Each structure stands twice: as C-alpha cells, then as structure tokens.
UniProtKB/TrEMBL annotation:
<dbReference type="Pfam" id="PF21144">
    <property type="entry name" value="Aquarius_N_3rd"/>
</dbReference>
<feature type="domain" description="RNA helicase aquarius insertion">
    <location>
        <begin position="706"/>
        <end position="747"/>
    </location>
</feature>
<feature type="domain" description="RNA helicase aquarius N-terminal">
    <location>
        <begin position="22"/>
        <end position="413"/>
    </location>
</feature>
<feature type="domain" description="RNA helicase aquarius beta-barrel">
    <location>
        <begin position="492"/>
        <end position="658"/>
    </location>
</feature>
<dbReference type="InterPro" id="IPR048966">
    <property type="entry name" value="Aquarius_b-barrel"/>
</dbReference>
<keyword id="KW-0067">ATP-binding</keyword>
<keyword id="KW-0547">Nucleotide-binding</keyword>
<protein>
    <submittedName>
        <fullName>AQR helicase</fullName>
    </submittedName>
</protein>
<keyword id="KW-0347">Helicase</keyword>
<dbReference type="InterPro" id="IPR032174">
    <property type="entry name" value="Aquarius_N"/>
</dbReference>
<dbReference type="Pfam" id="PF21143">
    <property type="entry name" value="Aquarius_N_2nd"/>
</dbReference>
<dbReference type="Pfam" id="PF16399">
    <property type="entry name" value="Aquarius_N_1st"/>
</dbReference>
<keyword id="KW-0378">Hydrolase</keyword>
<dbReference type="GO" id="GO:0004386">
    <property type="term" value="F:helicase activity"/>
</dbReference>
<dbReference type="InterPro" id="IPR048967">
    <property type="entry name" value="Aquarius_insert"/>
</dbReference>
Length: 747
C-alpha cells in the first residue's frame, strides 16, 4: 500500500454533490439557504458519523462534502453541549477541524463565537486520546484525535485554545518526572524551586475534584507518551503489520516534533520527553527496523532527535554557543565518570580516562557493553535517568535499552553548524525520488511528511534559517526531478545487445558523456575532513543542430549541471509509460551535481570569459572542466573504501543542463549557509520579531531608544516646492519665513 502513487483529490461536481446523502441531510437540517429547517436531532450526527465517515474509512471526499455543507458551523458546534456530547459528536468535530486545516481555511472562528462549552469539549478529547483499548476508539480514530491535538498546539496564538493547552504544558507538568530527576532539575535553576513550592501550596488549597482534574491535565502528555510506547511495542519485526498502527506512530512523532519546535511548548516539555526516553524506545523499536513501513517513521524520528538536542537554553530561550554545548557535554561525561569511580570498580579505566578518549559511540559501547543489565540500571539511576533498582531485584529493562540510553546520552555530537557545513548542496537520487521529503504534485495533505514546518515562531535564528534552507533545497529538488525525468525519458536509454547502454532518442538539455575523469582533489582546509575542491573533466560530442550546439558552448562559469548514470534493463524499442515509476523504467542509478568552471581549448586550458572573442574550436568534441561538491565526493569515497561500494564517478553516462533562470538554487543555498556561519546577522531590535516573539510594533522607529534628532537631506530635494510635494497630506514647518532663504540643503 505504501508504494502506490498518491491520487489527485478531485473536487466533486455540482451534480455529484447534490446526489450525495450528506447534501440531502444538509438541506433538511443545516444548509444556510434553507428557510424551514428540522429541529436538532443528535441521531443525525450518529448516522452521519457511522454511515458516511467510518464506513468510508474517513474518505477525504466524504469529509470534504460535510465541510463544504458548513456542517461544523451550522450544526455541530451550534448545538454542542455536555448533555448531547458523545463519541460520534467529538469525532465529527475533530474531523471537520482537521479538514479545515487540510484545506488551509480558518478553523477556530466558529469556536470563538460560542466559546462556552469549549473547555468541556477539550477535556473529553483529552480523555478519549488516552483510551487504552481499541474497542472504544479504533486506532484510526485515535490518529484523528492526535492530529486535532497537533493543530491545537500549533494554534497558541488563539486565546481560546491557549487557555486550554496552557494547563498541559506549563511547569506543573514536571509532576510526571521521577522524583530524583525533578530534584536534579530544580537544583540547576534556584528560581524554579520558589515557583515549585508555590505550586505545591496552591495545590493544598484546592478541593479534591479540582485537584484530580489538575493532576490529569499535568500528566496528560506523559501518559500519552506511555500509551504510544505500548502501541509501538505491539508492532512485530516481520510479518503482516497494521498500517493504522504505523500511521498512529507517525502522527505521534509529528506531534512530539511540533511540541519540541516551539519555545512556549518546549520549555517544560523537553525535560518530560527526555525523562520518558521516548527517542531511545523508538530507535530500538521493531518499526524502525522495518525498511519499507518504517521509512517515514525513521525520518521523523531523526528530526525529533535533532530537536531534542537543539542548541538552545529551554528556560531562557537563548541560543547556546559552541563552548556552552561543549561544557554541557563534558559535564555529562564527567558526572558519569564520577558515578563510575565512586560505585563501580569495574569501570575504573573509564573513570580515569580523559573525556576525548571515551566519548565516541564505539568506545562507550566497548566499555559498557560487557556489564550486566543490573549494573547498567544502577549507573543510569545514579544519573537520575531511571528509578532506583531495589536491592535483590533484577532490572525489568532490556540490556539493549539500558546500553543505548547511556551511550546516546553521552556520545560526542557534531554541532549543528558542523553538520550543515558537511552537507552536500546538490540533491542525489536518494532524495530526489523520496516521496516523504519531496512529494509528487498530488500531495493531498492526508499523510504526514518529514518536512520542517514554517510556524509563527522559531526557536533561534539558526532554526529559522535552517528550516528555510531545508525547504528551499527540497523545493528546488522537486523542479530538478521534473527536469531529469523529462530529459532522460526523451533520450530513451535502452539495453544494447552487448549489455551496454544505447540511446534511442535525443534531448535538447542532455547529452551522452563520451568520457569523464576526476583531474584534481585538493587538500582539505585545516580542521575540515573534506577536500577543499574537486575538479573533473567531462567530454561530450555535440553532433547536433547549430542553435543547440551554441547553447551547449554557451555554458558559463557557475552554471550548474547534473551528471547521471543510467543502466537500463528494457530492451531496444521498449515504450516508456509515464504512469509507471520513472527510476525503474530508465534504470537510473546515480545523480550528482556539478558546477561549470569553463570549456577547455585545444591545449586543455580553461577558456576564460572576457572581452576577447572566444576561439573557434574544430570538430564536435567539447570538454568542460567542472567543480564537484567536495562534501558529496568525500561521502562517496568513504562509502567506496569502507563498504566496498562501486565508485560513482566512473559510471556517469549523461550530462544534463537546466535553464539558467531556474538554476540559481546552489547560490541561494550557499548564501544561507554562509549567513548561518557568521555571528550576528540581525540587529537586536529586529531579532525577536523575526522569531515571532514580543510586540511587533516595537521595531517601529518611534519606539527606538536611539532616535536621530536631525537628518541632513543634502541634495535630496531641489526646492521648497519639491519638498512640500514629496510629503502630501503633511504640514511642513519652516524655521525662516523669508522665501528667498528657503533653499536646499534642508535639515
């Protein structure tokens, strides 16, 4: 099911809408244009839910029609009250709100108009989300609820929503932490202990019912995490799998991601998430090991892992510097070493080593691998990661989990900026045809994507730039995919009788490669592990019409081309079917980007661009000197040496160019990356507003502390009349009344 191409959701026609059962019901009960409506009947809601929504397995078409008929505004919410609330009622409202978000239309307006019963409704949703057995709420229904909650957490700018969500994500949610961990966190920030004691005092004043309700709200997210872990563990490593469970897990990780990527929700939740060891459970789960069904889950999980370790101080919201991150890492390792030295004689070697010698993943696994589960549990409990192991009892945790918990927490991590600098800027075949990252044009908004979201708020400037970097990179990848598919399918690569490739067609924007050689791999800069530059020569035979030949010869410095390897499996003369997957039909294996340095003359020198006319070259063979991406080259070579993979750079057989106007993506990405490598990019007065915090009007010049009292306009205005004409609707005050003296320059 996962590999079926996404279908385009076609909007239904008027006659189809009128023929639907939903429309007939709407005309009786809630359509705005009907004068005499029947009175409210909760059975209608039950009917619509079971017959239309559940029976069609939540088909977008049915829900789209309901939303189009204004079901939520004119029937559901208008008549909602605690007395008529039921499972079908709650689920119908959630489906409608989710549909509004899918269609990108304002969703909360109805609730703002009649906010009375919203708190009760929200409480019912929370209770329904925690239901353990599938008989009450199926997993598909619980996934709908998760999506609804996700929309709530992403709508904190709406006062009504914020009022309800605030209870779930404020400081009292730390009640769900283990007592030892809580103590450790409060010790770090003395100010918090004051607040904590206040919360305790207030709790004592509450009556029993209020206290119970507060208790449920505070523990809601940690209970939801526990419920998710039990669903995750019920997925087998192999054999048949319930896709409902997979979708539930994907949506859940998406919810966690959105909570982590917003400062107001992250502030206290990050500690709770860390205390639940969710990321470790996920990486060790069967779903993560299933290649096909777990692919999207793993991508979302990588994003979650990135955000859980994001370089930001959760309490203050300030970005952490490289030094502060290193200090945090060293503190963690040294506290582990102290625990080892004090209580575990078998770890003396580890306790007395220097940090750099023991903080890689391999060395930690080597040191802690031989220990028993009980010892590992004790180490973890000394670090307040797990509850204390009672004397004489065995640990209930698996050894694999305990080892991963200690290793993933203490291994050396690459800083965000280093990760970015080591990233290739050109997309490769792995990204170009990955539906989760670069969806086809028919993305209907149903599934979840492993993409960063552009919200109203961002964690830090780095986060803001990084999300834009990733999204821009993938947007340009989508266009590149279309260009490659177009050019390569026009060239009609077929399998020749001798096992090679034969091209049955031709393309204006692509040519077969005659020869390709890497001519220079420069030494790395100090502190980097990738070459400073990598250059190669590509030879093609331009036996084509003159105007196309001119286009190829007109390739200029910095133009981006793509080197492609195809190994077709179809015999000569096979027709290409546009409906079937492109990669299988053409046998496309590799795609790598490169940047033109110039064309070579007869002596093998690069023809420089300048005023003098270009030399006329004889024959049809042309050779181009190109720059390859050093990061990509480094990754490919490492893969060849360590895993015995084939050398990508000896296989290319097509070079493809793109229209210069659409081809500036590499320059844009490089600029964003350079911006992220510089220290201060944005002035203080604009910083918070870009990240979506504070008062938007505070950046207005009238609110600035250092306003300029006078400004010399020099020769901007030619005369007093020109000055007056430049400010229509304003009254110009003059210091001298004599017109003869009213001459520029004005101040």
């Amino acid at each position: 099911a996962a590999s079926a191409p996404p279908k385009k959701v076609v909007a239904p026609t008027v006659s189809q809408i009128n023929a639907e059962y939903v429309t007939q019901l709407a005309n009786k009960y809630w359509a705005p244009h009907v004068k005499k409506k029947l009175s409210f009947d909760s059975k209608v809601i039950e009917d619509v839910y079971t017959k239309e929504i559940v029976r069609s397995k939540f088909a977008i078409r049915k829900i789209m029609l309901l939303e189009f008929s204004q079901y939520l505004e004119n029937y559901l919410w208008m008549n909602y009250s605690p007395e008529v609330s039921s499972k079908a009622y709650l689920m119908s409202i959630c489906c409608m709100v989710n549909e509004k978000f899918r269609e990108n239309v304002p969703a909360w307006e109805t609730f703002k108009k009649k906010p009375v019963h919203f708190p009760f409704f929200f409480k019912c949703i929370l209770e329904a989300s925690l239901v353990e057995n599938d008989s009450e709420y199926s997993l598909h229904e619980q996934t709908v609820l998760l999506l609804f909650l996700d929309h709530c957490f992403n709508s904190l700018e709406v006062d009504l929503i914020r009022g309800q969500v605030q209870q779930l994500i404020s400081l009292p949610m730390w009640m769900a932490l283990q007592p030892k961990r809580l103590e450790q966190e409060l010790k770090k920030t003395p100010k918090l202990r004051k607040f904590w004691n206040l919360i305790k005092k207030n709790d004592e004043k509450m009556d029993e019912e209020t206290r119970m309700r507060a208790y449920q709200e505070r523990r809601f997210l940690s209970q939801l995490i526990q419920k998710f872990i039990s669903v995750l563990k019920s997925i087998p490593v192999s054999g048949p799998i319930s896709m409902d469970k997979v979708h539930y897990c994907e949506r859940f990780i998406e919810l966690m991601l959105d909570l982590e990527a917003l400062l107001p929700t992250r502030r206290w939740f990050n500690t709770v998430l860390d205390d639940s060891h969710l990321v470790v459970h996920c990486y060790l789960s069967s779903l993560a090991k299933r290649e096909k069904e777990g692919h999207l889950f793993c991508q979302l999980l990588d994003m979650l892992k990135f955000y859980t370790g994001f370089e930001i101080n959760d309490q203050t919201g300030n970005a952490l510097t490289e030094n502060e991150m290193t200090t945090i890492h060293y503190d963690r390792i040294t506290s582990l070493q102290r625990a080892a030295f004090a209580h575990f004689p078998e770890l003396y070697d580890f306790a007395l080593s220097n940090v750099a010698a023991v903080d890689t993943r391999d060395s930690l696994v080597k040191l802690f691998g031989p220990l028993s589960s009980n010892v590992l549990h004790q180490v973890a409990s000394y670090l307040c990661l797990l509850p204390t192991l009672p004397d004489g009892q065995d640990s209930t945790y698996e050894k694999e989990f305990l080892l991963e918990l200690l290793v993933s927490r203490h291994e050396r991590r690459i800083s965000q900026i280093q990760q970015l600098n080591q990233m290739p800027l050109y997309p490769t075949e792995k990204i170009i045809w990955d539906e989760n990252i670069v969806p086809t044009e028919y993305y209907s908004g149903e599934g979840c994507l492993a993409l960063p979201k552009l919200n109203l708020q961002f964690l830090t400037l780095h986060d803001y730039l990084l999300r834009n970097f990733n999204l821009f990179r993938l947007e340009s990848t989508y266009e590149i995919r279309q260009d490659i598919e177009d050019s390569v399918s026009r060239m009609k690569p077929w399998l020749s009788e001798y096992g090679g490739v034969v091209f049955g067609g031709w393309a204006r924007m692509a040519q077969p490669i005659v020869s390709f050689t890497v001519v220079e791999v420069a030494k790395p800069n100090i502190g980097e592990n990738w070459p400073m530059r990598v250059r190669a020569d590509v030879t093609i035979n331009l036996n084509v019409r003159d105007n196309i030949k001119d286009e190829w010869e007109g390739l200029r410095k910095h133009d981006v081309c793509f080197l492609i390897t195809v190994r077709p499996t179809q015999p000569y003369g096979t027709k290409f079917d546009r409906r079937r997957p492109f990669v299988e039909q053409t046998g496309l294996v590799y795609v790598r980007g490169c940047e033109i340095q110039g064309m070579l003359d007869e002596k093998g020198r690069v023809i420089e661009e300048g005023p003098e006319p270009k030399p006329r070259l004889k024959g049809d063979c042309r050779t181009y000197r190109v720059f390859l991406d050093p990061n990509q080259y480094q990754q490919d070579m490492t893969n060849t040496i360590q895993n015995g993979a084939e050398d990508v750079y000896e296989t290319f057989n097509i070079i493809m160019r793109r229209k210069p106007k659409e081809n500036n993506f590499k320059a844009v990405l490089e600029t964003i990356r350079n911006l992220m490598n510089t220290d201060c990019v944005v002035p203080d007065w604009l910083h918070d507003i870009i990240l979506g915090y504070g008062d938007p009007s505070s950046a207005h010049y009238s609110k600035m502390p250092n306003q300029i009292a006078t400004l010399d306009f020099n020769d901007t205005f030619l005369s007093i009349d020109h000055l007056k004409a430049s400010f229509p609707g304003y009254n110009i005050k003059v210091t001298v009344d004599n017109p003869a003296l009213q001459i520029p320059p004005f101040r």
